[in-house]
Amino acid sequence: MICKKCKNSGSVTVRKEHMYCDNCFMLNINHKFRSCIGKNKILSSNDNVLVCLTGGKSSTVLLDLIFNGLSQDSHKKLRMVPFFLHITGLGEKENDITVAELIIKQCQSYNFNVYIVNICEYYFQRNNTLPSVNSVTDVHNWTELNSNTNLKSILGKMTSTSSNDIEMKIKHDIFIRAAKQLKCDFIFTAETTTTLAVNLLSNLAIGRGSQVQDDIGFFDNRDENIKILRPMKDITEEELHHYIRIKNLIEISVDTIRGNSLQSVIKTFVTDLQENFPATVSTVCKTADKIGSVDKNTNRCKFCKSNLPEKSDKITAIDATIFSRTVSNGQPPIANRNTGAEEQEDIKMSLFPFIDNYFCYCCSKNYLEAGLHDSNFFEISGSKNL
Ligand SMILES: [Zn+2]
Ligand SMILES: [Zn+2]
């Protein structure tokens, strides 16, 4: 039982085979974090970076890694100016307050400030102030102000799979807007190898396969000016667990994935996989890294800002669905070609509204589902000019 690096006695086993002492383990994690940022050569010296915090394991470790990096002496110093953001407002109120309080305490212990925004208020009302909240009393006052639960009730009526998807896209939008306000050209989010594997498989399952590169790679390039980076992508859930134990950090369980959804089933699958076949999860992510985006169209989806596919003569899954619909309607195609085409267009619109012109496949499906509960939802969410 000796450390594979320094040959002293080991204390941490990673992936059931590698033994480290606490010290070498921490050096290794710091190295993974720094080399992920370094080798991608995107950040330059003293860039403003917005760091998104959730209070969960990976967010807690990210905060600690940034603090460590900033406190190194000159040649090893992490050269960036961090701004911290926490998004709240979709959970049970008591729980939201507990999480916000923990994040404030975490930031205070490193002497950082944190901005906290309520998702409903900031997203719907286009409220452009970012409150910097630094005391527990502030949190209580500020949650009293935010009684707008419109978003929460709409998401509550939709299927869990769609709500999970929409929530993620809305948060993404808020990250970008907050970064613009705070003059940050970069955003750090805390996805680990494990979360990225879940996101990859979920993307494939819900029809966002063509967006895998932006959603899973080191950086998300959908915004022209602001890049979302994922510096924790080479760190696994298991490693977070050891890191938190060794440094005695306090975190809170913040699973935002709603149960009974494709995403929650996939998460259980990936967690089991990680447990029993530890090397498989990182292989899943490495495969994702190699998948380039095929859509080079400059038109973007109005909701998720992904590239829309270019017009093509090839038959797609959507054509197959429309064909099935025509067949199950029990009517033969109309002989007149023009009317036939119009009919096809009508069916397409009723099954996949605004697809390819305004929305990608998945957002079109979400639009249809949200419209059943609140026809203003997508209009409010930035797709006003349909
Ligand atoms: Zn060692
Ligand atoms: Zn979309």
Structure description:
The protein has helices at 22-39, 57-71, 93-109, 119-124, 136-145, 150-157, 160-181, 193-206, 212-216, 237-247, 262-276, 278-290, 317-328, 337-351, 361-373, 377-380; strands at 12-14, 18-20, 47-53, 80-88, 114-118, 186-188, 219-220, 227-229. With 386 residues, the chain is an alpha/beta fold. A 6-stranded mixed sheet has the order 5-4-3-6-8-7, sandwiched between helices. Strands 1-2 form a two-stranded antiparallel sheet. The protein starts with 11 loop residues before the first strand and ends in a 6-residue tail after the last helix. One zinc ion (ZN) binds at residues 3, 5-6, 8, 20-21, 23-24. Pfam families: CTU2 (PF10288). Its main location: cytoplasm. Plays a central role in 2-thiolation of mcm(5)S(2)U at tRNA wobble positions of tRNA(Lys), tRNA(Glu) and tRNA(Gln). May act by forming a heterodimer with NCS6/CTU1 that ligates sulfur from thiocarboxylated URM1 onto the uridine of tRNAs at wobble position.
